[in-house]
Amino acid sequence: MSLYAVILCGGRGERFWPRSRRRCPKQFISLFGSTSLLQLTDERMRGLCPAPRRLFVAPGGFRELVERQVRPRPGNLIIEPAGRNTAPAIALAAAHLIERDPDAVMAVLPSDHIITGQRAYEASLRLAVAQAGRGRLVTFGIPPTRPDTGYGYVQLGPKLGGRGRLTAHRVAAFREKPDAATAVRYVKSGDYLWNSGMFVWRADAVLAAFERLLPEFHDRLAACRRAGMTDRAVRALYRHAPAISIDYAIMEKADNIAVVRAGFGWDDVGSWLALERHLPASPGGNHFRGPAAALGAENCITDTDTGVIALLGTRDLVVVRSGDAVLVAHRDALGRMRELLKQLELLPAGRREL
Amino acid sequence: MSLYAVILCGGRGERFWPRSRRRCPKQFISLFGSTSLLQLTDERMRGLCPAPRRLFVAPGGFRELVERQVRPRPGNLIIEPAGRNTAPAIALAAAHLIERDPDAVMAVLPSDHIITGQRAYEASLRLAVAQAGRGRLVTFGIPPTRPDTGYGYVQLGPKLGGRGRLTAHRVAAFREKPDAATAVRYVKSGDYLWNSGMFVWRADAVLAAFERLLPEFHDRLAACRRAGMTDRAVRALYRHAPAISIDYAIMEKADNIAVVRAGFGWDDVGSWLALERHLPASPGGNHFRGPAAALGAENCITDTDTGVIALLGTRDLVVVRSGDAVLVAHRDALGRMRELLKQLELLPAGRREL
To answer: What are phi and psi of A104, to 5 degrees?
Structure first.
């Protein structure tokens, strides 16, 4: 029973515009230092999976970026004809793996998270693999550090395994993104963890779950497998694939779910505000990546690779300069980034910068 | 009695950073279109003064910029050893001119103003020249369009000449920058004009005023003239020259002053906020020069030559991208620009951008 890393390389890269672009989303850029989030994800798995057991799933448009950044072994880059959220990508990877190794256990890993604490990470994965060996679909829950309303939460059920602070549990319930008061209650209770989007399971177990919960898609996948998983067969599969997340398609409905309480540091770097958690603070509560000067500025974040960003009397702003584009956003408005990019599409100069 | 244009090309260019830089202040940049403010100033005088009668005064560091932009005739670029405000520059130009033409009348013109209405401009200058012919020191007063507290004001005295709306007056008083309530009273009264910093006088008349009001400097200037105005003599003159404005040194103290009520449009483009007066408004009261996109932005000004500036949920900001530098300033904080640039001097990357 071998562990395979399945690193998901899709994603639109809108929330980190203009550092991320449609052709180069967040997972491919170096938010800190010179290593991309994808490369960091790949490196984290080296101790558990040698290169032949590290697979990557990406839409065709990202093939070159993935090949350049992590050099997958031949056959280990699975190309999707189009992005269709996580469920089809995971099913496709499971179908590939089970042909290769009927006992394969797969760790499904987004490529755009920041994780700290390598030993704890590997220990958490080993516990998850042990649970997966019993046929369970294992998710990772992150002990919340703030009452964030941007995440789904997993309510812990009875303990299944592990010891000390590193334990596996049944899942009492999945909870959608809560309101602020509910989030405070979740965090205080200690019974709720953030739903991380990282999973471990046997390939056959997740395919069985697809068969039960998404039978039509599973039938098409079976046909694709009978056709030898050719490019043409995969294109046909994706033509009718539902754009649906694995959480919604499988996790919230299956009954053999376990959650591992993660002992590692985790950040899904969901918006520019995440930089505050990873950059030292300057006077005024500002956080600067790259050259910056500030006078009378408070609670601002700047990011630039070259030149300088100068702030004068500003508050609560995110200022990013990348390539020829400059973003100036109020921190409370970052949730409307997608709308802003739609406006940019209308500009000739803006379209070049998307 | 011939008219000479004396165009003052000094100035630090701090308030339009980062479009203006220390090596290329505001008068040398193209705030609108492709012609610099200096070039526009030069062009405005072509109808009144042929090239041999258009002179330029500039610190040595700006020699190349002036030569490239307006190609002065030989001998018509007067180099100052250093910037020393307007009084020494004007005295130096007057000393040059009087050697050339004892009856010279000089129009002293800052090179960084925006002026509209060429016919009215020329008519105002002709009226000023007629007053200067009677030995008066003539300033131009601009009918105020708002109760601006950033300008000095000139109080009109009895009429001396002109007709209709174009008239020359004695000056009842010069008033320092007023407080807001006083400025409102000035504008309502109709008796106060903005002090424009443009002047017309005979070279001998202004030198006589220097002799009476700044006798020590005038003695040194006389010695400089006796030495043939060599570079060495001018350097010696400037070593002790007071850094003082012509308003403070001469205009506020002389008794033979006249003011011409200007009939032309005038803007000294004192800060980035001036762009609002010269750019069309976009929805939300924003003003954009160069490519820009905005969502939920109000009362902002952007300026860029390349790329795009994207605003998301911001208010009351000035955002300028020029070269590698980005400025993001609250509009109420622009008065602290000089302090900000001092901070930039402390940064290696910032110093390159000054």
So the answer is: -60, 135
Same-domain status, A243 and A323: no
Examine the pLDDT at A260 and tell me if it is beyond 90.
yes
The half-sphere exposure of A223 on its side-chain side, counting CA atoms within 13 A, is 14
Q: Do A329 and B312 touch (CB under 8 A)?
A: yes
In chain A, the number of structural domains is: 2
Asked whether residue A205 falls in the same domain as residue A298, the answer is no
Query: B147 and B294: one domain?
Result: no
Find the mean pLDDT for residues A311-317. Answer: 98
Residue B65 CA to residue A86 CA, distance in Å, equals 59
The secondary structure element, H or E, covering residue A212 is helix A203-213
CATH of the domain at B55: 3.90.550.10
Whether the CB of A337 is below 8 Å from some CB of chain B: the reply is yes
Cα Dmax for chain B: 66
Residues A347 and A235 in one domain: no
**Is residue B74's pLDDT more than 90?**
yes
Chain A residues whose beta carbon lies within 8 Å of the beta carbon of residue B308? 324-326, 344, 347, 349-350, 353
Interface confidence, given as ipTM, is: 0.88
pLDDT band at residue B154 under the 50/70/90 scheme = very high
| pLDDT surpasses 90 at A220 | yes
Q: Does A216 contact chain B (CB < 8 Å)?
A: no
Distance (Å, rounded) from C-alpha B285 to C-alpha B298?
Answer: 6
**What value, to the nearest 5°, has the Cα angle with vertex B110 and ends B109 and B113?**
115
For residue B67, CA distances in Å to A266, B20, B70, B108 come to 60, 18, 6, 19
Residue A123 CB-density burial (10 A; 0-12 exposed, 13-18 middle, 19+ buried): middle
Same domain, B281 and B220: no
**Exposure pattern of B179-201 as b/e (b: 16+ CB <10 Å)?**
eeebbeebbeeebbbbbbbbbbb
Domain boundary among A210, A235, A267: A267
Question: What pLDDT, on a 0 to 100 scale, did the predictor assign at position A294?
Answer: 96
For residue B150 the two structure tokens come to 């950033």
User: Which pLDDT does position B34 carry in this prediction?
Assistant: 85
A313–B294: do the CB atoms touch at under 8 Å?
Answer: no
Name the residue among A263, A34, A302, A230 with its Cα closest to residue A142.
Answer: A263
A206/A295 same-domain check: no
Q: What is the CA radius of gyration of chain B?
A: 21
Q: A320 at the B interface (CB within 8 A)? A: no
Domain residues for A153? 3-267
Q: What pLDDT score was predicted for residue A8?
A: 98
Tell me how far apart the alpha carbons of residues B300 and B329 are, in angstroms, rounded to a whole number.
Answer: 10
Collapsed DSSP state (helix, strand, coil) of residue A335: helix
Residue recorded with tokens 């602020």: A180
Q: How far is A325 from chain B (nearest CA, A)?
A: 5
Residue A222 buriedness (CB in 10 A; 0-12 / 13-18 / 19+) = middle
Statement to judge: residues A282 and A342 lie in one domain = yes
Block residue for tokens 């072509």: B46
Domain stop point among A247, A267, A287: A267
Q: What is the pLDDT of residue A12?
A: 80
B contact test, residue of A312, A317, A322 with most B CBs within 10 A: A312
Question: For the segment A61-105, what is each residue's pLDDT rounded down to a tens digit?
Answer: 999 999 999 999 999 999 999 999 999 999 999 999 999 999 999
Residues A277 and A259 in one domain: no
Q: Return the pLDDT at A270.
A: 87
